Amino acid sequence: MKTKTLLLALCAALPLTAHAYKLDRTMDCSMTVRDFFTPLVQAHAIQTPASMIGPKGANYFKKTSDNALTFFNMTVGWVVGYTNEPLLFTPPSDGTIPNFQGYGFYLQAPIAEVQATLASVGATAAQVRRIEPNVTYVYCEFPAAE
Hints:
It contains 3 helices and 8 strands. It is of the alpha+beta class.
C-alpha cells in the first residue's frame, strides 16, 4: 500500500517538474534579444503579447501559469525585453522608438546572492539592480538596433 501511495505521489509531481524552464545559461549577454526570447515563446514559458509596456518601451512578460522559470534555482518573476521586432514587442503608446534593446528578468532573491551566482558562472557582462530587499533585476542591454 505504501508503494502505491509513493508511486501516485511521484506521478502527481511529474507534471510540475516537467514544465520547469531554466534560464541558467542566458546571462553572459552574448545572445541577441531574439535568441533569448525564441525558446521562451516556443516552450510557452511566457505569456504573449506582453502584459505591460514600460514608459521607456520595455515589454514585461508574465510567466505562464503552468511553467516555472528559474535562474540557478532562484524563482524568476517577470521577463523583460525590447528590440524592434514587431511580432513580439510593442513600442510605447506615445510612438517613440526606444533607444535600447535588451533582455532580462526579475528574481526573487537578494542582490548579493544574485551577484555571487553571476560571478561564479563568469557572467560578468550582466547588469544587476536591487529593486527590493529580496527582488533583483538582472539584465543585458545593448545599443538600439538600426
